[in-house]
Amino acid sequence: MGSRTERGGGCRYDVAMSNDHDPRMAQYPLFVSYPRSGAHWLNCVMELYFDRPRLREGRVTFLDSSRDDWMWFHDHDSDLSVSHDNVLYLYRDPEDVIYSYLKAERSKFNERTVDEIARELRAHYTKYLGPNGVARSVIRYESCRSDLGSQFEIICDFFGESLDRARLDEVSARVTRDSIVERANEGRKREDQYMNRKMLSSKYEKDRDGFRADFGDRIAREAIPEALSGYFAPGFVPAV
Fold first, then answer.
1. Structural domain tally of the chain?
2. For residue 205, what are the domain limits?
3. Which candidate, 39, 216, 33, places its Cα nearest to that of 125?
4. In sequence order, what are the residues at sequence separation of 6 or more whose Cβ sits closer than 8 angstroms to the Cβ of residue 19?
5. Residues in a beta bridge with 55
6. 8, 87, 92, 203: which has the fewest C-beta neighbours closer than 10 Å?
7. Residue 44: C-alpha distances to residues 49, 96, 200, 206, 220 (Å)
8. Burial of 218 by CB count in 10 Å (0-12 exposed, 13-18 middle, 19+ buried)?
9. DSSP symbol at 236
10. What is the pTM of this model?
11. Does residue 240 lie in a domain region?
12. Domain-located, residue 97
């Protein structure tokens, strides 16, 4: 099978399809996240903290983009065909993932589109968080936002490194939503911009609250297996 490119809302995803993964993936630890789970931000923080770039080509980065001393590989595993024995998995509450995804793809908010992505997320969560989950280490986006140090301790442990909280504070202060959008769109024409500045607006946040009110219960039923509900409980924080 080949690869497909999904585009919409100023964003593009190069989605790896079965038997078409970058062969270099097997050479490095693998960081997996479903699209729109917050990996752009976290990847940039990780690169600055470890002073090492990640593989995928054409990524948003705060390092010299010509560097190739890779430390890890990032992939969405959108078709669930990836097989790897050293995986760090980032997950995010499904309401926010689906809202962000549909906004990026300029898709309508309706039960059909919501259910389609919810079913994909359910399969993703099951593969990486389930009783037979293949992730070696797990981090939660919401926990990263509320207490980055707690989740970065897991990241450092995954890579066999120690956590320097002062350094983490220093580099994370550089990676803001505005700075990521600026880096992503640097040198691009408006129609080719990788990220949309509308993501930074108060209207975006207000519309997300409305989306949660309209679809939150439905998404929870469709996307979260009962056996994994603990991972999504308010206040749950993955630990080393």
1. 1
2. 4-178+189-225
3. 33
4. 1, 81
5. 73
6. 203
7. 9, 20, 18, 27, 29
8. middle
9. -
10. 0.88
11. no
12. yes
Contacts of 205 (CB under 8 A, 6+ apart): none
> Which CATH number is 125's domain given?
3.40.50
- In sequence order, which residues have a C-beta less than 8 Å from that of residue 9 and are 6 or more positions away? 103, 104, 105, 106, 196, 198
Q: What is the DSSP letter of 67?
A: -
Only one residue has tokens 């964003």, namely 11
Could you tell me the two tokens for 97? 């993932």
Extended beta strands in the chain, E state:
4-8, 11-15, 30-33, 54-55, 72-75, 87-91, 137-140
The angle, 0 to 180 degrees and rounded to 10, between the axes of the packed helices 177-185 and 39-50 is 90
Q: Residue 95 CB: number of other CB atoms within 10 A? A: 22
CA distance 14 to 189: 19
Residues making up the chain, counted from first to last: 240
- Identify whether 230 is part of a domain: no
Q: So what's the pLDDT on residue 2?
A: 32
Q: Answer whether residue 87 is part of any domain.
A: yes
User: For residues 123 and 117, what is the distance between their CA atoms, to the nearest angstrom?
Assistant: 10
Rounded to whole angstroms, the maximal C-alpha distance in the chain is 46
For residues 104 and 198, what is the distance between their CA atoms, to the nearest angstrom?
A: 10
pLDDT digit string, tens, across residues 113-149: 999 999 999 999 999 999 999 999 999 999 999 999 9
pLDDT band at 197 (very low <50, low <70, confident <90, very high): low
Taking alpha carbons only, the member of 92, 75, 81, 96 closest to residue 30 is 75
